[in-house]
Amino acid sequence: MSAVKNISIVLAIAAAAVLPTVWPNPYYIHLMVVIGIYAILLLGLDIVVGYVGEVSLGHAALFGIGSYTAGVLHFQLAVPFLLAVPASIAVTGLFGAILALPALRVNGPYLAMVTLAFGTIIQILINEMTFLTNGPLGLSVRKPIWFGHQITGTDYYYIVLVALVLALFVVQRILKSHLGRAFEALHDSPIASDCMGVSVYAYKVYAFVLSAGMAGLAGSLFTYSEEYISPNTYNFELTILFLLAVIMGGRKTRTGPILGAIIVVMLPNVLSDIDLFRKISIGIAVITVMYAAYAITARIRSVRQLTLPLIVTISLAVSGFFISDISEHRLTIFGVMILFVVYYLPNGIMGFVRSIVVRFRPQWIHRHVQILEHGDKQHIWAVPDHPVTSNGFLLEARNIVMQFGGLKALNDVNLQIKKGSVHGLIGPNGSGKSTTMNVLTGIYSPTAGEIEFNGKIITGTTPSSIAGEGIARTFQNVQLFGEMTAIENVLVGLHHTFRHSLIDVVFQTPRCRKEKNSAEVRAASLLQFVGLADLANEEARNLPYGKQRLLEIARALALNPSLLLLDEPAAGLTAPDIKELISMIEKIRSHGITVILIEHHMDVVMSICDTVTVLDFGQKIAEGTPAAVQSDEKVIEAYLGGSAKTA
Ligand SMILES: Nc1ncnc2c1ncn2[C@@H]1O[C@H](COP(=O)(O)OP(=O)(O)OP(=O)(O)O)[C@@H](O)[C@H]1O
């Protein structure tokens, strides 16, 4: 983290600490407490929404569970604050795991519906379980007494501030670790994530549990802040408000949730004070005009793109002088703000601010420095060798059938892959090559047949466990983690090397730092190996297509595979790049890694493959050395649609 960032954080905490002294109004102190509490919840919600990319409509319910756990423990059992809060985190985390179970089966809008149902059920349960929750009458709670001193509103402000700073610290460390990368990876490409050994199921549950724990913390703090809780608070409106706050503030940032919390808590107050509304709306209009002037001059946006935002913000500022009671139009203004942010600032307000900052200070996000300063920069090998001790088969696929409805994409296919060889898989379009890859890597479970890898039957196991066994792959349609940099993509492939726990991540123990450093060095050298060292900090989605394919190879090698499946690696490469690719595959083989290669560039196949298998209409029609296959009549017929003689 840069010194400027550290200083800004210290200044922000110091400013928050002196706020009650310079602004001692109890009403505003209470508002700031609510902002702090909401910010804690939103930081957790951002893990699910921003990082994992799922829409949760169950977070008001999780907030309610946290609130009621603390409330019930205090009301029924007189459990002290310092025990009630961790208990709330644990109970809500458990409910988060329950909420995540459907996430294993469904996602997108279906998951949103399931979480909505969860929210409704929880609200009904809180209402109905009168013996525990006091039903609609609610529960009264007092702020704690510590060492004979009754905690006041101002004292409580500091308690929430400490909780918020700790929450920020913990979330930041988690999201910047291999765990955060796993969350992002499963959002960007669940298939690639599974094939890199990062189980989508496990990490979705992990994200929900963490997020729920944060909601539990926020909920329990809310109970003591309000001193009275009732079921109606944790309704559908609140859940929508939370989602909007994350989206408006800016997902995948730490400041976004804080800003989102400020907006949703302060907006009703801003709108009920016309003077304050005028000042703020004029401020927003001035900032928009200034940005528009800059963006048009710097040719970042066109006049046409900026006309509507300018009209809306200036109209808002002017309307303040014609309307005396703006609070009636509260929902309209809120709606306009949401539309504005979703349409013009898809990454939220902080995402927009960051994009401007990055323009001036690119080094702020380019946090992975060039690690390789010494050594042979041409060919650095970062993967342990796989000595080929015997001539046996590394993989045997027996009688594989893969049926999609009435179509047999693979029909009784047998494959035997020799250890240490480069095995080509060719065939016309639709012959079943990619389906074979998908069956071997567990993405498809074959309708019949079995696969033995390294003496183990792997049929029916998950892609992540097959990856763990040592089978890595690239994809025909590139499956990179687009929003991550090149080096971060490779680091996902190195996920298996991280053995440290969540606690190690939070406290940055020596074990954690050691594993992180060695993974970064390995990732950098893998990038060097595929010739992408200079693009280590570039977001994967910004790389040219050919380079994206090379990055996939580096990421697959990071898994330390004994079998590497390359699906059309030469597609999109230029002639010199293809030459480089051939020598790269040869080098991979020379380190004992067995390769299965699907390729339409016959020169690549013929120059490096030891054996070639030819598929046609899901069946193996030929197998042998490249030369033998090339002159096989059936093969010529399949490729050229004529007889060998004619060909
Ligand atoms: N998930 C699926 N559902 C239904 N049919 C599928 C599915 N996956 C593949 N197929 C079908 O199986 C057949 C084999 O497809 P596959 O993608 O394996 O061919 P391929 O040899 O890799 O072709 P190409 O060279 O064009 O990539 C095709 O007819 C395809 O439409």
UniProtKB/TrEMBL annotation:
Transmembrane segments: 7-23, 29-49, 56-75, 81-101, 108-126, 156-175, 205-222, 234-250, 280-296, 308-327, 333-357
Start and end residues of each ABC transporter domain: 395-642
Keyword annotations: ATP-binding, Cell membrane, Membrane, Nucleotide-binding, Transmembrane, Transmembrane helix, Transport
Major localization listed first in the record, in broad terms: membrane
Organism: Sideroxyarcus emersonii
Top-level taxon of origin: Bacteria
Any one GO BP annotation for this protein: L-isoleucine import across plasma membrane
UniProt-listed SMART domains: AAA
InterPro entries: AAA+_ATPase, ABC_AA/LPS_Transport, ABC_transp_permease, ABC_transporter-like_ATP-bd, BCA_ABC_TP_C, LivM-like, P-loop_NTPase
Keyword Hydrolase: no
Any one GO molecular-function label of the UniProt entry: L-phenylalanine transmembrane transporter activity
Localization per Swiss-Prot or TrEMBL: Cell membrane
Membrane topology: Multi-pass membrane protein
One GO cellular component term: plasma membrane
Entry protein name: Vitamin B12 import ATP-binding protein BtuD
Pfam families named in the record: ABC_tran, BCA_ABC_TP_C, BPD_transp_2
